[in-house]
From TrEMBL:
Species this protein is from: Anabaena sphaerica FACHB-251
Keywords associated with the record: Cytoplasm, Heme biosynthesis, Iron, Lyase, Metal-binding, Porphyrin biosynthesis
Pathway(s) annotated for this protein in UniProt: Porphyrin-containing compound metabolism; protoheme biosynthesis; protoheme from protoporphyrin-IX: step 1/1
Lineage: Bacteria, Bacillati, Cyanobacteriota, Cyanophyceae, Nostocales
Function text: Catalyzes the ferrous insertion into protoporphyrin IX.
Protein name: Ferrochelatase
Record-level GO BP terms: heme biosynthetic process
Gene name of the encoded protein: hemH
Catalytic activity entry: Fe-coproporphyrin III + 2 H(+) = coproporphyrin III + Fe(2+); heme b + 2 H(+) = protoporphyrin IX + Fe(2+)
GO cellular component: cytoplasm
């Protein structure tokens, strides 16, 4: 085999406070994050939401030192993975490709093309697949491959999701045990899995396997842990007015507090590095909610970061994928094409479900257009003199 490369895919995060606005704009410009029926709406809406959210989001980043640690940790994971692969006699170059901030996926692809990589393993740093995370990065890569003929000869394989990997489950169990051991009665503490949420429509309408993979992952971690502790799964970080996967973390914490739970370990399970949602949302916001609800001994399991058992798990994943038949990007993005997606729907006349859905969407678009117009002072209603 020729020169091997591993492309680690991740979300990216603002390095400093000034990056927050443009980072949010990139994130909301992604049709896999906000799913709209018309592409032309994407950029104005992204600008509008990013502008509105920047201040609050900056306040949150201020609490964790003024920026996201995601780049630093992902690069450290890459270095540790390289050393582990070297030790196993499988030398490889590691590349980091972020979706919404530096180093962008496009930069990583340009670099690996320059390095004459001959076989590439595409490894998202999300254990479970979601349209909004790994799916979005795979779609981008598919586009880059289509646009750049230079990439055609590069042989690659994709790892779509890997939450069943035994080393990963073992690392998670060890991180939980570390926290359980801090309680006077380790077997009685409540284990609280907090997954990043997604809008419910992603699962129900678009067929995102995320919820099923999260639920299975929770069961597998509990089996690996092999302790009698009670556990709960809930979803955090809801954004916007639509319904997301339930139960919401804040509600589940309040409910457990009301039931008299005092000792609790939160386990973040959708992400493998510390980031704003562990350091700020769980450690500050959810801790406060839990303490108010009477959960006085609130602890959190660390994210796997560069835990040696976790890094070995990543190295095993890379090795196993090199031995299996290649999995193409078209194969891993295809699962979405089999289910209901906005661009594939067709208009139907009459009082059909489809027509009702479209009525709702048109009303929503009208409303959004009105808000944008009020904020920017420009648009159709100003042009015809209805707004000044
Ligand atoms: C598996 C993990 C993640 C899923 C699923 C996910 C979906 C998702 N996220 C948003 C909106 C935002 N996400 C933001 C930050 C952010 N998201 C993830 C992970 C998942 N997102 C991470 C790791 C981070 C943090 C990066 C960092 O800086 O450390 C943000 C910005 C922060 C904020 O303002 O709260 C937003 C906004 C949506 C809408 C979504 C599903 C559709
Ligand atoms: Fe997110
Ligand atoms: Fe989030």
């Amino acid at each position: 085999m020729g020169r091997v490369g591993v492309l680690l895919l991740n979300l990216g995060g603002p390095d400093k406070l000034e990056d927050v606005g443009p980072f949010l704009y990139n994130l909301f410009s992604d049709p896999e994050i906000i799913r709209l029926p018309f592409r032309w709406m994407q950029k104005p809406l992204a600008w509008f939401i990013a502008t509105r959210r920047t201040k609050t989001s900056q306040e949150n980043y201020k609490h964790i030192g003024g920026g996201s640690p995601l780049r630093r940790i992902t690069e450290e994971q890459g270095e540790a993975l390289k050393a582990q692969l070297d030790a196993m006699g499988k030398a490889a170059n590691i590349y980091v490709g972020m979706r919404y901030w530096h180093p962008y996926t496009e930069e990583a692809i340009a670099q690996l093309a320059q390095d004459h990589i001959e076989k590439l393993v595409i490894l998202p740093l999300y254990p479970q697949f979601s349209i909004s995370t790994s799916g979005s990065s795979f779609r981008l890569l598919e586009k880059l491959w289509q646009e750049n003929p230079q990439l055609q000869p590069l042989e690659y394989t994709v790892i779509p999701s890997w939450y069943k990997q035994p080393g990963y489950l073992q690392a998670m169990a060890e991180l939980i045990i570390e926290q359980l051991n801090q309680f006077p009665n380790p077997d009685q503490a409540h284990i609280f899995f907090s997954a990043h949420g997604v809008p419910k429509s992603y699962v129900i309408e678009a067929g995102d396997p995320y919820q099923q993979e999260i639920e299975e992952c929770t069961q597998l971690i509990m089996q690996t842990l092999n302790r009698p502790n009670p556990h709960t799964l809930a979803y955090q970080s809801r954004v916007g007015p639509v319904e997301w996967l339930q139960p919401y973390t804040e509600d589940a914490l309040k409910e457990l507090g009301a039931k008299g739970v005092k000792d609790l370990v939160v386990v973040p399970i959708s992400f493998v590095s510390e980031h704003i949602e562990t350091l700020q949302e769980i450690d500050i916001e959810y801790r406060e909610i839990a303490e108010e609800a009477g959960i006085h001994n609130f602890r959190r399991a660390a994210a796997p970061n560069t835990h040696p058992v976790f890094i070995k798990a990543l190295a095993d994943l890379v090795n196993e994928s090199l031995e299996k038949p290649n999995l193409k990007l078209s194969q891993v993005t295809q699962m979405k094409k089999r289910v209901k997606m906005y661009p594939q729907e067709r208009w139907e006349w009459g009082l059909t479900t489809s027509a009702e859905v479209w009525n709702g969407r048109i009303a929503m678009l009208g409303f959004i257009a009105l808000i944008i117009e009020i904020v920017t002072g420009r648009g159709l209603l100003h042009a015809i003199g209805l707004l000044q």
